[in-house]
Amino acid sequence: MRGGLWQLGQSMTRRLAQADKKTVARRYFSAEAELKKTVLYDFHVANGGKMVPFAGWGMPIQYKDSIMDSTLNCRQNGSLFDVSHMCGLSLKGKDCIPFLEKLVIADVAGLAPGAGTLTVFTNEKGGAIDDSVITKVKDDHIYLVVNAGCRDKDLAHIEEHMKAFKAKGGDVSWHIHDERSLLALQGPLAAPTLQHLTKEDLSKFYFGEFRMLDINGVHCFLTRTGYTGEDGFEISVPSENALDLAKAILEKSEGKIRLTGLGARDSLRLEAGLCLYGNDMEQHVTPVEAGLTWAIGKRRRAEGGFLGAEVILKQLESGPPVRRVGFFSSGPPPRSHSEIQDDKGKGIGEVTSGGFSPCLKKNIAMGYVKSGSHKAGTKVKIVIRGKAYDGVVTKMPFVPTKYYKPS
């Protein structure tokens, strides 16, 4: 799905308010029969979730509160997201790390057991196939989560390379965790609320770490990570226990943590300056252009050995032709594909994500501009519906991140 989910949520809300609901329902839910459903689908509907098709799944775009209120509540209290449409998988075997390092830019071997990182799967031209959070559980076990919209191409890509790797004697196998569901618990109340449901001391568990532990009496995979810029966790739970866990989290927060949909998830990740694959990263965009140079391990920069390494290492040396940057702007909120011009009216790039920031109460956006026009403070024009509005390049994240790290 291209374009911001935030806009989709706003337009759905307006149409549901204004239009004949049967017509709207036909339009938005005509493909419902073919859509996959998470185990929480009925729970979302019962709690007022407005369901939309997303990456082949029926997912809640928002609940009874507005996307604006949901976003603010996540920053002030907390949010619980059903992200079971995403694909978790494990790679196992004594060669799983050298295998994975052929496909991603991270220094996987250099991770401590139980540590994780954001990485990018690259193609032969150095472009991004997908971004993923990967964790080195042990030297012979990697756990990773890939995006729902990229699942089929990611799994085909991994499988193709795995066959070739195993044909040469490599020891690697995989398991796709379709028997598990994934919940994302985000915000300042995430840790204190989850602490009620586990005996493990979460204060010793930092951003990027992974553990297998009992939560609400069930064996879960817990990663201290998320997609909002807030402190929080992603919890992989056996699907038959997902509903009980979701209810327990909401109950223990005494109503302060709310079920939250894809609309607020989009505004939260935009405020945090995080990429949405399919908008801000695509197969022709390298990690260097996307501003993810930090994710390329030091050893990988020296040795290469991953797909597209030649292109990426050359960009590290001489600089990329374009760069992902953030913007503040006047006028209507910028949208995906809005043209970016320099102060003389010459085209220098385009917006990939944009919207009104609920927290900052102003327009924010990210996009790609030609190198040289990427420095913070550079004045630009952003063209929306044929009219140019003033904008300025700014550093990201727009809203300060609150990841839980050792002090």
Automatic annotation (TrEMBL):
Residues 323-399 form the Aminomethyltransferase C-terminal domain. This is Aminomethyltransferase. It is found in: Mitochondrion. Its EC number is 2.1.2.10. InterPro entries: GcvT, GcvT/YgfZ/DmdA, GcvT/YgfZ_C, GcvT_C, GCVT_N, TrmE/GcvT-like. The keyword Disulfide bond does not apply. It catalyses: N(6)-[(R)-S(8)-aminomethyldihydrolipoyl]-L-lysyl-[protein] + (6S)-5,6,7,8-tetrahydrofolate = N(6)-[(R)-dihydrolipoyl]-L-lysyl-[protein] + (6R)-5,10-methylene-5,6,7,8-tetrahydrofolate + NH4(+). The glycine cleavage system is composed of four proteins: P, T, L and H. Keywords: Aminotransferase, Mitochondrion, Transferase, Transit peptide. Substrate binds at residue 234. It comes from the Eukaryota. It comes from Quercus rubra. Belongs to the GcvT family.
